[in-house]
Amino acid sequence: MRTLSRHEKKVAAQLSENGIRYFLPMATGKHKWSDREKMVLAPLFPGYVFVRIVPTAEARVAVLRNSGVASFVMQAGAPAAIPAEQIEGVRMLVEARKPCAQHEYIAAGQRVRVRGGSMSGIEGVLVASNKGRTLVLSIEAIGKSVAIEVCGYELEEVGTIA
After folding, report:
1. What kind of architecture, by CATH, is found in domain 2-79?
2. What does pTM read for this prediction?
């Protein structure tokens, strides 16, 4: 679902209080002010919190009643269902505590899966960068992606995106 600007943590706290299952992936990143730089913990996908609910009108209303919730992400007139493997990939990435950054959404390219190591099983699109190999993990329903360096990891081709 979409949240109001900078309301992700507040929404997550309310969802927790109301017993609604949610996932708010957070990542540490460098934030610059005019006089200093600091490492801060921020949402990996600003403006979004993922919820797991039964797809009923009552469940949607229970989520929408929380302060700071803007709307559900919609596809074909219904709330978007994000595949479990995409959410699990993001969860594994966050739990691995590897440096990652937001990345432009990619709709075409070579899909790969990481083999071995702490990120084994994560699938995404492989792109080249000036530093080496980068894996872009995309959440199609919201048109957002996150990028992580995968130098030193063994990758296997999954297929290509049409």
Report:
1. 2-Layer Sandwich (3.30)
2. 0.74
